[in-house]
Every structure is written in structure tokens, then in C-alpha cells.
């Protein structure tokens, strides 16, 4: 038994609104997480960003599916429901795969960060200009996370002194002028552990966002097909009443 036109319109409207809302939330969340990882890409590497980037792409695709569903509302063909369902299944499978991928990255992030951080630190030690962009990046990290070097202030032994950022003293202005402060207390912990904890936290958030998006969209998908059955029942009842009246 076919579905009534009014029931179809109600079904498609509710589905597209819910689906579009989930896509917008996913887009904002994944974009924010990419930013949180991107700002420390020189220290933690770019590999940890890939699951978040994939999640952002899924948000864009989800928005596209919602838009296509909205554009095809007038046609009222059930084939569109089937095609949309197939696309949603693919999106959910990819999002769940993104969750698994993010958990794998979360488990191995310490190895990736250790290699990237050590290499970048050795590269920065060769710089003699305090206004060099790499030196400034390290200064900001050491001030923000209250740390010194990779494993501690002993990492600066080859240089003969620790930078003032190991005491919490940053650049005096936006032009990164030389530091002018007495270093009375040097941070004893290295930046490896704080950055490792930070990266793990952000990657875990990516994984949980991917899992939540998959569950939410499965729920929307199930709601849609529940309403399809509901509309069929209404159509069947109306047809039966019409036959009995005749």
C-alpha cells in the first residue's frame, strides 16, 4: 500500500531537519578538533589529525545528503528513500571506521609524538636567532605547558643555557624582542608528557565524536523507517475506511 502525500512530506521534512542538524554539529565539532591538533602539528605530527579530517569530510557529505533529500522532496518517490538509506549506511560505516582508526592512533600516539618532538627539538637547537619562528614556537609551548625541553632542562646541556621560556618568561611583545628577566625557577619536567597527554585527549575526543555521530545517524535512520511503517498503516486504514463506506 502506498504512502499518503502528506505523510511523505512530514517524513522527509523531519528526516532532513534531523540529519542536517547532526551534520552541522559534526562539522563544528570536527573542525574545532582539527584546530586543536593543528596548532601543535610541529610537535605532535600531522598523522594524529587524519581521523579528524576524515570526520570533517563525513560532515560535509552528510550535509550534501540532507540537501539532496530536501531537493527531491517534491518527487515523492520511494526510490529516493532507498538511495538515501544506502548513502547513510555508507556514511555510518565510514564514521565507525573513523572511530576505530582514531582509537588506533590514540593507542600509538606516544610513539609518533616522541619521534616528531625529538626531531623538531634537535632542529631548533641549531638555531641561534631568538626571533626564529621555530625558537618562538618552542618558547610558547614551554610557557603554556610549563615544561622545558623534551624530557627536562638537561636537554639544553649542549647549548650551555636554558631559554627564559623554561622559567615561564615569554616574549615581551609581538615583535619577539629578546627576553629580559631573571630565571629564578626552571621547569623540571619535559614537554614530552604534557604534549602526549594533550594529543591523547584530543584524539580520544575525535574517536568519541565519530562514535556519537554514527549512533545518532543510525537513530535518525531508524526513526525514518519507523515513520515509513507508521505512514503505511495510516494509508491502509484510510483505504479500508474508504472501501467500507462504499
UniProtKB/TrEMBL annotation:
SUPFAM superfamilies: Tetraspanin (SSF48652). InterPro entries: Tetraspanin/Peripherin (IPR018499), Tetraspanin_animals (IPR000301), Tetraspanin_EC2_sf (IPR008952). It is found in: Membrane. Its main location: membrane. Disulfide bonds join 148-167. The chain crosses the membrane at residues 12-38, 50-70, 82-106, 203-223. Keywords: Disulfide bond, Membrane, Transmembrane, Transmembrane helix. It is a multi-pass membrane protein. GO terms for cellular component: plasma membrane. PANTHER family: TETRASPANIN. Belongs to the tetraspanin (TM4SF) family. This is Tetraspanin.
